[in-house]
Design a protein that fits this description.
- It is a single chain.
- The longest helix has 33 residues.
- The chain has twelve helices and three strands, in the order E-H-H-E-E-H-H-H-H-H-H-H-H-H-H.
- The protein is 71% helix and 3% strand.
- Helix 1 packs across helix 2.
- With 262 residues, it is mainly α.
- 13% of the residues are buried.
- A three-stranded antiparallel beta sheet has the order 1-3-2.
- It folds into three domains: 72 residues, Multidrug-efflux Transporter Regulator, Chain: A, Domain 2; 48 residues; 138 residues, Globin-like.
Length: 262
């Protein structure tokens, strides 16, 4: 088994020898053993533990908080790494969103007026998600918690490829719906029925549960009732949100009638 001295591990981990000494002094990272020469020696378990310590430091945790985590009875390196990965993916997505907003704002300052005012704040997705969930719970009661939990469970099971594929599918569906709206098709036209069915199936896929007509109506009301949703849909085409909400309700009514006839 490979072993490292303090100096070797410090060089490997790109930290100072003093830091490793400090971690030893406070009991956060003890060496595997002390040699007869008095040197500290570290082996693989200590390397993994040091990696966790440095990752938690990267996320801003204090040393006493880190100690509580890595010394917990149920601590598992693999599970911890998965959580680190999830947190890092969220951070990267947040930074990518912020970068897009910066680019769009610079374009706006250069005279491109396609960016809506609401777009100035589109990177704030984590806070917005909490806001939406609180709004849903207040408006629709306990059943909203079931929707949120189901949706979260579904998303947690997605790979990055799955997430991108789902978003690409939604973009294609919305592009078709916007095209129908801009071509002047009425919101209750049966011509757009396949598009709405595709949208409802997408919603069911994301919920990981069926989206019955009644739930689809509630979703339409949610779109119409929250200013951020209105701004988002109207950024695709002015007036599109009202048309989409009416189309969803017309589709739900037809679907409800079909279920009743069966």
């Amino acid at each position: 088994m490979t072993r490292y001295t303090v100096k070797q591990l410090a060089d490997l981990a790109r930290i100072s020898v003093r830091t490793l000494h400090h971690y030893d002094d406070i009991g956060l990272l003890k060496p595997a053993y002390l040699g007869t020469n008095g040197y500290r020696y570290y082996e693989q378990p200590q390397l993994y533990r040091l990696q966790q310590i440095l990752m938690y430091r990267e996320f801003g945790l204090a040393l006493d908080e880190i100690s509580g985590l890595v010394d917990a009875a149920d601590f598992d390196v693999a599970s911890s790494l998965r959580r680190h990965r999830e947190r890092l993916v969220e951070r990267l997505q947040h930074q990518q969103a912020l970068l897009r907003v910066i680019d769009d704002t610079l374009a706006r300052l250069d005279g491109d007026n396609s960016m809506q005012d609401s777009g100035l704040y589109n990177w704030q997705s984590p806070a917005k998600q909490a806001e939406y969930e609180a709004w849903l719970a207040e408006r629709y009661g306990p059943q909203a918690h079931d929707w949120i939990a189901s949706s979260r469970k579904r998303m947690d099971g997605f790979s990055e490829g799955d997430r991108q594929a789902a978003m690409d599918r939604l973009k294609a569906i919305e592009t078709d719906l916007v095209d129908a709206f801009q071509r002047g098709l009425k919101s209750d036209s049966e011509t757009i029925e396949p598009l709405l069915m595709a949208h409802r199936n997408w919603v069911a896929h994301m919920w990981n549960s069926p989206c019955p007509p009644g739930a689809y109506v509630i979703l339409a009301d949610m779109y119409a009732g929250h200013p951020d949703f209105v701004a988002r849909f109207d950024s695709l085409a002015q007036g599109f949100c009202n048309w989409l909400v009416a189309a969803m309700k017309a589709h739900a009514e037809r679907a409800g009638e079909a279920v009743a006839e069966d």
